[in-house]
Amino acid sequence: MFKSFRLKAKFATLFYAISLSAMLIVGWYGYENAKDAYMKAALDLAKGYTSEVSVHIEDVLQLSHNDLDFIANGYAIQKHAYWIDLGDEDKQHQYHEIVADTLRGFVVSYPNDVKIRIIDTDGHEHVKVRRNLETNLTQISSNSELEDQSQRDFFKQTMLLSKGQVFVSSLDLNTEKGKIEIPHLPIVRLATPLIETNKVKYGIVVVNVLAESFFKYIRDANNNKQERVFYLVAPNGDYLFHPNSEKTFGSLLGHRANFEQDFPNLLAQIKQNKKGVITDANNIVTYQTIYPALNNDENYWLLIGVVPTAFALKDLLNFEYTFLVLSLLVIILIFLSTYYFLGNLMRPLEFVTHQLRLLGRGEVKVEMLAYSGQDELSDMLESTRILVTNMERLAKQADAIGKGDFSGQVEVLSEQDRLGAAINN
Fold first, then answer.
1. pLDDT value of position 342
2. What residues contact 368, with CB distance under 8 A and at least 6 apart?
3. Mind listing the pLDDT tens digit for each residue in 99-155?
4. Which of 11, 101, 283, 362 has a 20 to 30 Å separation from 298 between CA atoms?
5. What is the spatial distance between Cα 305 and Cα 81, in angstroms, rounded to a whole number?
């Protein structure tokens, strides 16, 4: 089919094919590189925020560990437990006031700790200090407000520990008198055995850490223009933190909202590594495992950041629009330059073809074509002019000879001009 094209069409087809192919290859290469660059930028940003938030959470937990250790090793607290164990009510009462005031001052000074308790070996609370979050006042609980915690998991687990070891509960909701407190208050319980220098275990110390002390860092990270959302997720998929608090603690509160429901099959992939990145057509997911309890890999939370892929590549759309506009301009430029070039090329060729066609029919018609170039086309036009002009002279001389006039002569163009020589002879 290409062979049947006219020369102009062949030149145009070849020129367009090469130019457009080159443009498409360069455009595709540029698009893929731009896409990779935007994806990498989005990934680096998401991983950076994930790492930063996890560090803040771990710092809060470490501070709470330090608080617990300081409290458990306090002289007045240990002496209070000692006199309780001996049954000396006078000494017990004396140190009770000291311990209560110490713990109250501690809660006032350290807003991360919302409640601190001293619990004896039978599971009975002896001292309980709590801050009221609505009034921000710290209160020492009366004897009637003290509870039996002997059946609670945190008490049983902590009583099995040695001095200096710490039990960290799951992140759940605070309870009072066996019921979940309303409004809901997410907390983490840190507990350690209360052991005197005589190595006697007198009970445990429990600090309730306010989860909001590290939720605020997640909330701050979610305040962005990249539609990036961070969640804190339990191993079973329950949301511990979600921008919509109604979706949290599904197992405790009896609703079905969880991470697996919102992001099917993703939780299993995340659990395969302690941290990493997962990308698919819909989302860029960064995650990091947080261990609130030292040396306990079974108790962990998952900090998960999700960025819609479409938004991460939003700037790529600007690249696409820019590329399309530039491509259109280039195509127009190619069309105009090709039209101009082929026009300059084909006009001389078409003129020579016309002259030769006339000569082929025995017609001699001297015509001129203005061409300013100094190239092969100029040489071809000059040679055609000489040929047609000479043929015109030869035709006139032949007409004169036919009428019996043999006096005329024509210019012999070269030694090989047999026709000119024959006419003159």
1. 73
2. 385
3. 888 889 888 888 889 999 999 999 999 899 999 888 888 899 988 899 999 999 999
4. 283
5. 45
What average pLDDT score do residues 181-195 get? Answer: 92
Please give the helix or strand (H or E) that residue 221 lies within, else none. helix 212-222
Asked if 191 and 158 touch (Cβ cutoff 8 Å), the reply is yes
Burial class (CB in 10 A: 0-12, 13-18, 19+), 159: middle
Residue 80: closest CA among 65, 69, 91: 91
Residue type, 409: Q
The 10s digit of each residue's pLDDT in 354-373 is 888 887 787 777 787 887 77
More confident residue, 256 or 342: 256
Q: What is the mean pLDDT of residues 268-294?
A: 90
* pLDDT for the residue numbered 2: 54
CA distance 357 to 87: 131
Question: What angle (nearest 5°) sits at the alpha carbon of residue 342, between those of residues 336 and 344?
Answer: 105
Angstrom distance (rounded) from CA 233 to CA 213: 17
**Dihedral (Cα; 165, 146, 90, 108), 10-degree rounding:** 70
Cβ atoms < 10 Å from Cβ of 408: 14
Contact 4, 282 (CB under 8 A): no
Single out the residue of 10, 223, 190, 196 nearest to residue 115, CA to CA: 190
* CA atoms in the 13 A half-sphere facing the CB of 67: 28
**Residues paired with 195 in a beta bridge:** 201
Residue 180 Cα distances to 146, 177, 186, 252, angstroms: 16, 8, 10, 9
- Taking the C-alpha atoms of residue 95 and residue 78, their distance in angstroms, rounded to an integer, is 9
Query: What is the Cα–Cα distance from 14 to 265, expressed in whole angstroms?
Result: 52
Other beta carbons within 10 angstroms of residue 393's beta carbon come to: 15
For residue 349, the tally of other CB atoms under 10 A from its CB is 14
Residue 270: half-sphere exposure toward Cβ, Cα within 13 Å: 27
d(CA 141, CA 138): 10
Contact 117, 127 (CB under 8 A): yes
Q: Per-residue DSSP letters for 112-149?
A: TEEEEEEEETTSBEEEEEEEETTTTEEEEPPGGG--B-
- Of 41, 104, 33, whose CA–CA distance to 71 is shortest? 104
Q: How far is CA 403 from CA 76, 334, 393, 406, in A?
A: 148, 59, 16, 9
